[in-house]
Amino acid sequence: MKKQRLAIFASGTGSNALNIIRFFKQSKLVEVGFVLSNKNDAPIVKSALQEGVEVEVVSNQDVESAQRIMELCASKSIDYIVLAGFLRKIPKELIEQYPNKIVNIHPSLLPKYGGKGMYGERVHKAVLENREKESGITIHFVNEEFDQGKIIAQFACAIDNSETLETLQQKIHKLEHENYPSVINTILL
Ligand code: GRF
């Protein structure tokens, strides 16, 4: 059986991207075809190359116009796209090309704390300011609206009275690392 080929899109540190790369390294059914980044100095560019994964860096204009990224995905026979801290909007053309085949992870329990401009620390700060009792992560399909695609899975964590931005960030990353690769695996198989 042909392996399912993943593209991972990432703009930053890429701890999730790296975790996914490592998870599928031994898989007989899934392989990471390449990592795409819109930032050539993003740490994930270097770490993916160190893992032996191809990397393509594109401009923000390339992301907006869709053509180059569609060509890259086609030429590398990509079946699914995984977003892991990719901070640009996915163009409509790519969503149409990959219906229900583009997956994102968001560091809150959507629909809470989602939407344009809600990413990274901003999400956790808002959660703490509102004295929420819990937060978590959402894995969802990507549609044309930020963070509004169909939810695939959510995982929650409690927020303690002594919670800080740093401790919440760590909890959320832990949840992401524990769950994102296996949820992707379930979708693909
Ligand atoms: C993660 O928290 C993810 O939820 C969000 O962006 C962050 C990326 O972190 N979409 P990393 O670059 O994978 O460490």
Describe the 3D structure.
The protein has 189 residues and is α/β, with parallel strands linked by helices. The chain has 7 helices and 7 strands, in the order βαβαβααβαβαββα. Strands 3-2-1-4-5-6-7 form a 7-stranded mixed sheet, covered by helices on one side. Residues 12-17, 84-85, 105-107, 176 line the site of 5-O-phosphono-beta-D-ribofuranosylamine.
List descriptors.
alpha/beta; 38% helix; 189 residues; single chain; 7 strands; binds 5-O-phosphono-beta-D-ribofuranosylamine
Proportion of residues in β-strands: 15-25%
Ligands bound, unique = 5-O-phosphono-beta-D-ribofuranosylamine
User: What is the makeup of the main sheet?
Assistant: 7 strands, mixed
Mean pLDDT: 96
The CA-CA distance between the termini, in Å, is: 12 Å
| Rg computed from alpha carbons, rounded to a whole number of angstroms | 16 Å
H-E order: EHEHEHHEHEHEEH
Poorly predicted runs of 5 or more residues: none
